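Chapter review: from sequence to fold.
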Amino acid sequence: MASGKSDYLENGLLNHVMNGAAMTSPGATLYISAHTAAVGDAGGGAEVTGGAYARVAVTKNTTNFPTTSTGTISNGTLIQFPVATANWGTVTSAGIWDASTAGNLLYWGDLTASQAVNTNNRLEIPIGSLTIAED
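The token string follows.
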């Protein structure tokens, strides 16, 4: 399973830590996206469109992302996408963004198991299944 930080986030963190350049923290909300083609450090992939699709807003707090001291953090609440009103295709990966549309990709990763999302289905990411690790 592939996953990682976006080039945007890697460069921002390196510049912030190593040369003191200010890095703007994403606002109070993160946005989870679903993709039918792999995302990578430079972005890309094919984000789902149509059929009532929207990125899922997740407030940044310790309920949604419990504090960690292990270098790994996971979602503490269920992440539910809207019910599909048309086929979305097979979702293979997800992204974490700083905006509900467009914006900057922060993290990305492949799903453990691809999920076909057909009309009247809902894509869900169970508690503890969206995991971000720093090593």
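Two observations follow directly from the output. The CA atoms of residues 25 and 80 lie 24 Å apart. The beta strands are 3-5, 29-35, 56-59, 72-74, 79-83, 89-97, 105-117, 122-125, 131-133.
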